[in-house]
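In response to the reviewer comment on reproducibility (Comment 2.3), we provide here a single inverse folding case reported in full, input and output, so that an independent group could reproduce the run without further information from us. The structure tokens appear first.
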């Protein structure tokens, strides 16, 4: 005596109301009574259970092929009934016996859930909704959108079917059900949608959620738009990353990259591997070939998705360090529990192991790319070098590797790039340091007077124009035992390195008159400069400013100042080229012309500032001096 249109208990087993286990009751109470911002997750949970059931059957059928009967292909079907306000999620997976249903849908076996319930109860409103979204609370999340949930299930190989039913209000009932009202195998979950959730019976909503959250579940998903319609496939069940690398074409990788990462370019590098052993996971990651617009947004997080057994969990897990935040793709873990919270994820030793493994892999593959395909590596470096260099001071352990990967413009690079390895290999006799000049603009750097003495001696200088350069250069000890040294800081110390065109003539002595002039300049500038001295780094310009030996590089100071973090504001050193015609001429001006000499010193100081991309401290005084000096010249 059964009604085929509606699943009712067969009359020999009257449905008896049973209480939920206390923790389930609390969880359900929250589901029903809190305000949720993102209820979409319920579908992900039901689909993931359906997919799990198909995977379990696949596994059991290895031993007992008969379980598959004449229906070997796993499938998930979502049927919408907008008019009736129903949503059905059905699978042909392993199904549940009556006892299994009571156990699975009446208790909370998972240990983390109890703690979760306590946390959500302690949190309020919106926050608790977020927690649920991040956590994934499994089957019970159905009660966020339904007043009543009916589950009819038939265990594979069994000739009994069971109906589980509940309104989420503290009790559920279980009863036998006629086979005609049950799926031939597997589970049918029927949601009687509540007033606020009717849109979940609409095709577009369903399709959107499935594509966004479950598109890579390893079971095909079909949608029946309204009762009587044919099912239409909306996800093909192919999780690309689970297939062997050798069977995946370059185009398939690129398509997947573009759809999964929302990119439009070609990946510059594809990393696909399965880690086995202590931690089992698959990673499919891509390095884009173009820089996304928000690369330097401080809020920008990584863009790697975390899956657990092919079910999407979060794109918020820090699967790579910040300096690899340009990498797109996913990690699919076989070890993490599906109902893991974001906080638990971040503290999980499994995640730490994945992070370590993946970081090593990405850096290792970049090293290989640099070795085997320098042109492609250079496009990666052009797009993401600035970000990678953050790792030089953020990740001490990887510092040497990242420095070896780094590419630089230099006085010897032309339009190309130089590595530190090639720099060190080409160092001059007696050269002990890796020289660099940091500044805001590559063209200004190339024209800097600081480079003159180095150019004359053929000593290569790295030209560092990324803001991050001023940071790593101050924290790094060196590369292959050679320290980094700014050419705009301290004494240049070039005396030991032979000039390229020098016919072995000794560096010209600073004449007594010039020495007197330098002493006069020092006295005139007073505390505007921390020192005034003869320079061995200048060959063409008369003057330049350098930072004192000890203290921050001038470029770093400027960056700090523009970030509102003014440091001690150390005074620069004015270096004067003792062989420059202007300097030797000024040295000859008599002491009686003190006013002119003072003007000249102040102008030289301002000139050095201008060469450094700064402005004269006092424009009015500057133009007054300039006028007086020109006037004298015209006398
Ligand atoms: P989890 O999936 O993390 O175990 P859920 O709350 O989502 O937690 O589901 C609880 C249990 O209910 C599952 O472990 C499974 O045993 C059972 N279950 C839920 N949905 C299905 C289904 N469609 N087919 C078979 N078993 C299911
Ligand atoms: Mg589940």
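Designed residues, in position order:
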């Amino acid at each position: 005596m059964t009604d085929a249109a509606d699943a009712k208990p067969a009359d020999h087993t009257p449905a008896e109301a049973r209480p939920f286990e206390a923790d389930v009751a609390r969880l359900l109470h929250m589901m029903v009574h809190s305000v949720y911002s993102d209820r979409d997750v319920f579908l992900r949970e039901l689909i993931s259970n359906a997919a799990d059931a198909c995977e379990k059957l696949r596994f059991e059928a290895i031993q007992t092929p008969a379980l598959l009967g004449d229906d070997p292909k796993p499938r998930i079907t979502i049927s919408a009934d907008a008019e009736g306000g129903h949503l059905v999620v059905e699978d042909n997976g392993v199904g549940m016996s009556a006892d299994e249903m009571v156990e699975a849908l009446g208790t909370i076996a998972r240990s983390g859930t109890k703690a979760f319930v306590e946390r959500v109860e302690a949190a309020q409103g919106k926050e608790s909704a977020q927690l649920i979204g991040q956590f994934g609370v499994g089957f019970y999340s159905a009660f966020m959108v339904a007043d009543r949930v009916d589950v009819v299930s038939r265990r594979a190989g069994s000739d009994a079917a069971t109906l589980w039913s509940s309104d989420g209000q503290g009790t559920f009932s279980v009863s036998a059900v006629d086979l005609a009202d049950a799926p031939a195998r597997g589970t049918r979950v029927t949601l009687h949608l509540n007033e606020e959730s009717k849109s979940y019976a609409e095709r577009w909503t369903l399709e959107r959620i499935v594509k966004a959250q479950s598109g890579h579940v390893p079971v095909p998903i079909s949608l029946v738009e309204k009762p009587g319609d044919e099912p239409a496939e909306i996800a093909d069940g192919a999780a690309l990353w689970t297939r062997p690398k050798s069977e995946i074409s370059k185009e398939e990788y690129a398509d997947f990259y573009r759809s999964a990462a929302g990119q439009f370019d070609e990946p510059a590098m594809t990393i696909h591997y399965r880690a086995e052993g202590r931690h089992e996971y698959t990673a499919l990651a891509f390095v884009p070939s173009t820089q996304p617009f928000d690369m330097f947004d401080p809020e920008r997080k990584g863009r790697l998705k975390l899956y657990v057994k092919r079910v999407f969990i979060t794109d918020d897990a820090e699967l790579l360090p910040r300096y690899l935040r340009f990498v797109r793709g996913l990690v699919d873990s076989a070890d993490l529990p599906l109902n893991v919270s974001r906080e638990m994820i971040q503290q999980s030793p499994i995640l730490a192991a994945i992070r370590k493994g993946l970081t090593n892999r990405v850096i290792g593959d970049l090293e290989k790319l640099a070795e085997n395909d320098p042109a492609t590596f250079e496009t990666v470096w052009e797009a993401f070098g600035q970000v990678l260099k953050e790792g030089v001071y953020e990740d001490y352990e990887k510092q040497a590797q990242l420095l070896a990967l780094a590419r630089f413009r230099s006085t010897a690079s032309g339009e190309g790039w130089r590595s530190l390895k090639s720099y060190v290999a080409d160092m001059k006799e007696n050269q002990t340091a890796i020289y660099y000049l940091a500044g805001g603009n590559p063209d200004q750097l190339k024209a800097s007077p600081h480079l003159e003495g180095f150019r004359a001696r053929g000593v290569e200088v790295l030209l560092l124009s990324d803001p991050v350069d001023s940071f790593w250069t101050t924290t790094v000890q060196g590369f292959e035992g050679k320290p980094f040294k700014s050419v705009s800081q301290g004494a240049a110390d070039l005396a030991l390195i032979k000039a390229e065109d020098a016919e072995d003539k000794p560096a010209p002595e600073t004449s007594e008159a010039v020495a007197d002039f330098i002493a006069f300049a020092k006295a005139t500038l007073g505390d505007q400069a921390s020192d005034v001295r003869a320079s061995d780094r200048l060959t063409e310009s008369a003057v330049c400013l350098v930072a004192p030996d000890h203290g921050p590089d001038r470029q770093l100071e400027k960056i700090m100042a523009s970030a509102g973090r003014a440091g001690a504001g150390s005074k620069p050193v004015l270096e004067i080229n003792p062989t420059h015609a202007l300097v030797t001429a000024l040295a000859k001006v008599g002491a009686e012309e003190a006013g002119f000499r003072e003007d000249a010193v102040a102008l030289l100081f301002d000139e050095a500032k201008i060469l450094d991309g700064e402005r004269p401290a006092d424009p009015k005084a500057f133009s007054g001096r300039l006028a007086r000096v020109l006037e004298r010249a015209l006398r």
